[in-house]
């Protein structure tokens, strides 16, 4: 190692980590492990839409009770998103990284054993609390290990796990139901892979940026030095560069808004509008298609195709996000996705027409969502990253949980499905307008 330079010229630990070469056996491994948790998030949300028509028959549910199936799970995810975000910012990314999936797995098993509708709702809420922490915690951890020059691509590619999980859920459900018409088996099938991923997550190191912020310098240096050796980078002297974080309120909500009210407003508005539209489609499209004359298996497979084509959308987003920028991609892809959804809703009895436009929607929405996740995770510094993302995610889950009660219960009977999608498009355009005037482009910026 060369002789140390004057302290003021030394790079910080964060700069060292974000300037390392990217290696699939090092940072890529963390990306893969984090992405698998994200896959289960998608699987579980999609499962709500699959379960709805099955549980209507099993427990003879009313329309309001059916809507609560998805609402209970999504509200639980909303509570979990900000709760686990606070845990990750106070106790560590690694702790939250492992426990989120453990909680989800336990209550998913109990939900599959539920003897009645009421207990099932409680179990889905608690399972949602566990899984709701996966997205903010995973993005914080993966982002803090990823070099700055490829961070946008990696964080965008994280969302590639979402269409995989959604498609696996729909396809697996269609296959199981063709053999054994048992909704409990649909929930049991995901427990083994969840347990395996939980076990693998225990081997992931703590984020050195988090350790530095908490004043745990020796541990931070150990992780940074290991990363330098593992990636084959040239060793350099460095300083921590961050004052230890002060204790804060458990929710971190006030700190998030004090850091930047405008950025936080934009993050919440984008999350609430774009993901409300997405969840309504994902949760209700199988029921819409069955109502339009599709048989159950075909409705689930159509939903699977809509989700799977999203992998192509994620690839396009990953290729363009560093070239075009976060804001421009969002401003184009999100409204275009809703226009496809509007077109599909205009001729629901034409199977070929509906399938074609839903495939277009599935592609475009999965350009928008991964860019959104990468963008919001970059709007906050390390001390607030998981909490800032978590609160925005929580707002979107609550909106997605309560939104269908308004959209399905009020808007659809009044102005129809197509008119309701136009309203959602208007909300998204308004959120994008706020982004354009209140939030910066984050392409290439250092995380601190």
TrEMBL record:
InterPro entries (UniProt xref): MFS_dom, MFS_sugar_transport-like, MFS_trans_sf, Sugar_transporter_CS
Subcellular location field: Cell membrane
Lipid bilayer topology: Multi-pass membrane protein
Transmembrane segments: 30-55, 67-88, 95-113, 119-142, 154-177, 183-204, 265-285, 297-321, 328-348, 354-376, 388-415, 421-439
Transmembrane found in the keyword field: yes
Record keywords, A-Z: Membrane, Transmembrane, Transmembrane helix, Transport
GO CC list: plasma membrane
Gene Ontology molecular function: transmembrane transporter activity
UniProt KW Cell division keyword: no
Source taxon at top rank: Bacteria
Pfam families, per the entry: Sugar_tr (PF00083)
Protein name: MFS transporter
The species this protein was found in: Falsarthrobacter nasiphocae
């Amino acid at each position: 190692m060369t002789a140390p330079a004057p302290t003021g010229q030394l790079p910080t630990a964060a700069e060292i980590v974000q300037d390392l070469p990217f290696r699939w056996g090092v940072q890529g491994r963390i990306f893969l492990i984090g992405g698998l948790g994200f896959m289960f998030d998608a699987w579980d949300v999609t499962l709500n839409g699959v379960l709805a028509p099955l549980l209507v028959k099993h427990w003879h549910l009313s329309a309001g009770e059916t809507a609560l199936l998805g609402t209970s799970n999504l509200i639980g995810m909303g509570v979990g998103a900000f709760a686990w975000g606070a845990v990750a910012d106070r106790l560590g990314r690694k702790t939250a990284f492992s426990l989120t999936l453990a909680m989800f797995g336990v209550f998913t098993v109990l939900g599959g054993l539920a003897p009645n509708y009421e207990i099932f709702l409680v179990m889905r809420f608690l399972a949602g609390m566990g899984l709701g922490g996966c997205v903010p915690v995973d993005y914080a951890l993966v982002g803090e290990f990823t070099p700055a020059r490829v961070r946008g691509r990696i964080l965008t590619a994280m969302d590639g796990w979402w269409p995989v999980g959604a498609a696996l859920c729909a396809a697996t459900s269609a296959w199981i139901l063709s053999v054994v018409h048992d909704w409990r088996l649909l929930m049991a099938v995901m427990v083994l892979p969840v347990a395996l991923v939980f076990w693998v997550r225990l081997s992931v190191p703590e984020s050195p940026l988090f350790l530095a912020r908490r004043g745990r310098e020796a541990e931070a240096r150990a992780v940074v030095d290991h990363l330098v050796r593992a990636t084959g980078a040239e060793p350099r002297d460095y300083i921590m560069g961050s004052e230890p974080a002060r204790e804060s309120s458990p929710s971190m909500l006030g700190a998030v808004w004090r850091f930047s009210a405008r950025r936080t407003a934009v993050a919440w508005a984008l999350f609430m509008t774009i993901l409300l539209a997405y969840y309504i489609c994902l949760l209700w499209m199988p029921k819409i298609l069955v109502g339009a004359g599709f048989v159950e298996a075909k409705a689930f497979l159509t939903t699977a195709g809509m989700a799977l084509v999203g992998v192509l959308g994620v690839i396009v987003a990953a290729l363009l996000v560093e070239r075009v920028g976060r804001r421009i991609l969002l401003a184009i892809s999100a409204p275009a996705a809703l226009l496809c959804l509007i077109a599909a809703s205009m001729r629901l009895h034409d199977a070929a027409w509906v399938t074609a436009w839903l495939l277009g929607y599935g592609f475009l929405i999965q350009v928008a969502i991964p860019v959104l996740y990468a963008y919001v995770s970059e709007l906050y510094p390390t001390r607030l990253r998981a909490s800032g993302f978590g609160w925005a995610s929580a707002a979107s889950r609550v909106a997605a949980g309560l939104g269908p009660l308004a959209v399905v219960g009020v808007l659809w009977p009044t102005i129809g499905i197509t008119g309701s999608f136009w309203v959602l498009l208007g909300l998204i355009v308004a959120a994008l307008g706020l982004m354009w005037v209140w939030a910066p482009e984050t392409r290439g910026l250092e995380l601190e």
